[in-house]
């Protein structure tokens, strides 16, 4: 009964948006894993290590790596670095939802190849850990690093008593992220729809495809 009412509400909302000139642009998923046993040990590609982020030393390097990794995300628009950096440092210092002890980086020498930046909980579900950012820079893709970062992350949450971990993902991810998460035994818990309306013609600066 409840799911039927929710569908009716969603249908009415979609109809109203359509009447106002909005069009469906994209779907996103909340994907979740529920662990009744320890997750697999991460298989880290040769030459790389996964370790904790070093607070006070690596904020700049991590942000640069995140910006590079997420250039391939649909809708990404690059912001001024100084603006993003100030915001990042402010959140680390002031936001109780940030816990840098749950930030992990994969490195090769001094280079950050990938990262998993997590929150200890979700507001509506304090028992669920949250992967806020998971990314791998282009030169280190297709080697299993993203899966290794996920398994490392799941393992740390499991050690801290968290049996459920979630993340958000573009349902039509340009890099195939949904397939990775399914491989990691995550399932779709919730689906979101994004609608958009063009107010005036202009140049689209957002990422629409992965370029070689």
Tag the structure with descriptive keywords.
single chain, 31% helix, Aminopeptidase, 212 residues, alpha+beta, seven-stranded mixed sheet
Write the layout of secondary structure elements.
Elements: H1 2-19, E1 23-34, E2 49-52, H2 59-69, H3 81-94, E3 103-108, E4 111-119, E5 128-136, H4 145-159, E6 164-170, H5 177-183, E7 187-196
Parallel strand pairs: 5-6
Antiparallel strand pairs: 1-6, 1-7, 2-3, 3-4, 4-5
Description of the structure:
The protein is α+β, with helices and mostly antiparallel strands and 212 residues long. It has a single domain, classed as Aminopeptidase (3-Layer(aba) Sandwich). It has 5 helices and 7 strands; from the N terminus they run H-E-E-H-H-E-E-E-H-E-H-E. Strands 2-3-4-5-6-1-7 form a 7-stranded mixed sheet. Strand 4 and strand 5 form a beta hairpin. Helix 2 (59-69) packs across helix 3 (81-94). It is globular, with a radius of gyration of 19 Å. It starts with a helix and ends in a 16-residue tail after the last strand.
């Amino acid at each position: 009964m409840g799911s039927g009412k929710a569908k009716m509400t969603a249908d009415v909302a979609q109809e109203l948006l359509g009447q106002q000139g909005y069009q469906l642009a994209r779907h996103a998923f909340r994907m979740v894993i529920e662990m009744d046993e320890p997750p697999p040990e991460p298989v880290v590609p040769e030459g790389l290590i996964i370790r904790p982020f070093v607070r006070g030393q690596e904020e700049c390097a991590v942000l640069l790596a995140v910006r590079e990794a997420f250039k391939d995300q649909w809708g990404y628009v690059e912001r001024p670095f100084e603006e993003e950096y100030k915001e990042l440092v402010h959140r680390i210092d002031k936001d109780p939802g940030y816990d840098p002890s749950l930030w992990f980086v994969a490195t090769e020498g001094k280079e950050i190849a990938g990262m998993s930046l997590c929150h200890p909980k979700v507001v509506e579900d304090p028992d669920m850990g949250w992967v806020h950012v998971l990314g791998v820079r282009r030169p280190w893709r297709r080697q299993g690093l993203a899966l290794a970062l996920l398994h490392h992350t799941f393992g740390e949450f499991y050690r801290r008593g968290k049996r459920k971990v979630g993340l958000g993902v573009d349902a039509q991810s340009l890099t195939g992220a949904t397939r990775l998460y399914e491989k990691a035994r995550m399932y779709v818990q919730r689906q979101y729809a994004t609608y958009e309306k063009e107010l005036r013609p202009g140049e689209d600066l957002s990422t629409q495809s992965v370029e070689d």
